[in-house]
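lol ok so funny story. i was supposed to be doing the assay writeup but got distracted and ended up predicting the structure for this chain instead. priorities right. anyway since i did it might as well share w the group, maybe its usefull for someone
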Amino acid sequence: MPRRKRRDTEIFSMSFMDCICCGFGAVLLIFILTTGRRVDFSQQDLKDLQERVRKMDRAVAVEQEEVEKLAKATTVTEADLKSLIEQNTSDKDKAAKSQQTLQSLLQRTQEMQVTAAQLQSDVRKLPTEEEQPIPIPEIDRRQYLSGFKLDGEGAQYILFLVRSSGSMLGETIDDAVSRLGEPDFRKREAPKWQRTVKAVEWLVAGLGPEAHFHILLFNDETIPLLPSRGESWIARKDKPGVREAIAKLHQVVPQGSANLERAFTTIRYLPRLPDAIVLLTDGLPTTSDSQPNNGETDDDTRIRYFRYAQRQLPARIPISTILFPMSGDPGAAALYWELAGASRGALVSPSKTWPDT
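and the output, tada:
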């Protein structure tokens, strides 16, 4: 019988229990490795989330600040809007009052034009005097103008306040502006200025023999006609003094603006106040010390300038105005009429031929 073959002995062999242990160890190793990585990954995510939360908090704080700024700006805007609405209402009220005042002034101007026309008609009916051979006649002459009387015991010191601004060069603003570039001798020959000079001659000629007079020129500044005499008065019977004053008046060149407030202030501080003031002008002032002029002035501004000037007048001195009206200044006649009534003076708006006829 054949012999059974012996099985070979294997050095390396693994039992079932060894397999189980190895598998279990592998599972534990995988679990340990996987769990550690998971913890590391979760901590990093937590840090990232915390950083994002901090950024969001900062963004929320910034947005909150912006919201607060917008709320403050909204509050300020609402206050400004309320102020503008109130200012608009006030401006409308002022405009309505100004319109009423303008209508009143226009009505009074029309009434004064009718009165002036009647006065001119009366003047033409009065007897005329023979033309004198010299500018200042040496005989007593009277002013044949209703309500305009300078001689007498109550008016021995007469002040003539003559406007010498650039507006005295023309009957209209455009006419006056067009003459500003002309030579001085042409400016002195301007018809309106010549009428003013002749009016002063006429008025001086009509003073009583015992009267005294003083002439002030006003534009931007107020100066005496004869600086060498300062603030001294000229006697009517002082023939050399009268001739010197009239000769100097013919040399004056109108220029600049008109500051009536400064002129009245100058009169207020004269060593000897006048008994009467005669103002020769063509309209309302164009500048003022109380409210400096930075450009062109409208009618309301010039009326304010006149009110500022009126406050500087000495009390209880009659003020008579000879108005050579400038076109485009409708309120002048009414205000000077008011001034004449308040001071017991007079207002005359002569024709272009006065005082010659």
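The beta strands are 157-163, 212-218, 222-224, 234-235, 276-281, 319-323, 347-348. The longest strand covers residues 157-163.
back to the writeup now i swear
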